Amino acid sequence: MILLAANICFWIILVVVVVLQLKKYNSAIALLPQKSQHGVKNRHPALGINLRDYVPAANQPPGKPLLVMASMPTCASCHSQLEEVLEALETQSTVRFMVLLTEGEPGFESFLEKYQSVVPIITAPRQTMMNLYIFSFPTFIFLDDSGVIQDLRSSSLAAMHFIRSIGVE
């Protein structure tokens, strides 16, 4: 009789644990982008968000679009792609450019020393990057003149291609 009661308790506990784990996984799966249907590209969750709601320092003159490079101080690719964008944007004045740097990371101070005289740098905690669904670096964020995120790209080449495709350059 005791063995039967122990066996029943084991199965009840197992079912409860499985149900709790399924709820946890379902909530995590709900955060993933939905499956693309009919060849339509998935939407990044940050599209349509006003960046100034998350980073108040990300202001720009009215009527001027803004390209923001989200960067980590220790990201080697971020340094080289930052140089590429600065060179590409040297000759145009239509698009403003700034760097959104994750604060509190190793190399933060040296990144600021190296680039703050060259390009405007705004900082944000890692949690802000996560709230904007930015998990890889660099990420290039294209804002319209009111600060709303219009597009996100993962490379400087893709960002510059996007700028040319909308006729901003």
TrEMBL record:
<protein>
    <recommendedName>
        <fullName>Thioredoxin domain-containing protein</fullName>
    </recommendedName>
</protein>
<dbReference type="InterPro" id="IPR036249">
    <property type="entry name" value="Thioredoxin-like_sf"/>
</dbReference>
